[in-house]
């Protein structure tokens, strides 16, 4: 399985005015885990465009309500656990290589709408950045620690 490539993806750490981070619970999981908006890039899609597209598709937050503050200096990786390799993304990838963006939310809570065309989340909230690694599924914990480290100077 280590011969499989990483799926290109992007993620958004979205901060509100109090410097709290947007997190949501996936519909397809029974775990109490929370995650930031993230997802795969379309073929040839620019990482910034893909990150803003994923944010809107997952949260209903339009791009004009977001200001990009920073881009992580390098792609960040995570590996799927062995029991998920071969089951996700058509079995073609072993994990994701993600480009992360730190963004400021310029809108109001009422601008969040999880009832999108293809809903992915059942609930959302604002969380303290330092709580993120403990909130995510265990196999993404290191990834979230890396995201925090990449954006530490702005948090």
From TrEMBL:
Domain of life according to the entry: Bacteria
Protein keywords: Hydrolase
The keyword Metal-binding appears for this protein: no
Enzyme class: hydrolase
Gene Ontology molecular function: any one: bis(5'-adenosyl)-pentaphosphatase activity
Domain called Nudix hydrolase: residue spans: 5-149
Cofactor list: a divalent metal cation; Mn(2+); Mg(2+)
Pfam families per UniProt: NUDIX
Motif, Nudix box: chain positions: 39-60
GO terms for biological process, alphabetical: nucleoside phosphate metabolic process; ribose phosphate metabolic process
E.C. no: 3.6.1.-
PANTHER family: NUDIX HYDROLASE 26, CHLOROPLASTIC, UDP/ADP-SUGAR PYROPHOSPHATASE
Protein family (similarity comment): Belongs to the Nudix hydrolase family. RppH subfamily.
UniProt function note: Accelerates the degradation of transcripts by removing pyrophosphate from the 5'-end of triphosphorylated RNA, leading to a more labile monophosphorylated state that can stimulate subsequent ribonuclease cleavage.
HAMAP family in the record: Nudix_RppH
Protein name: RNA pyrophosphohydrolase
Taxonomic path: Bacteria, Pseudomonadati, Pseudomonadota, Alphaproteobacteria, Sphingomonadales
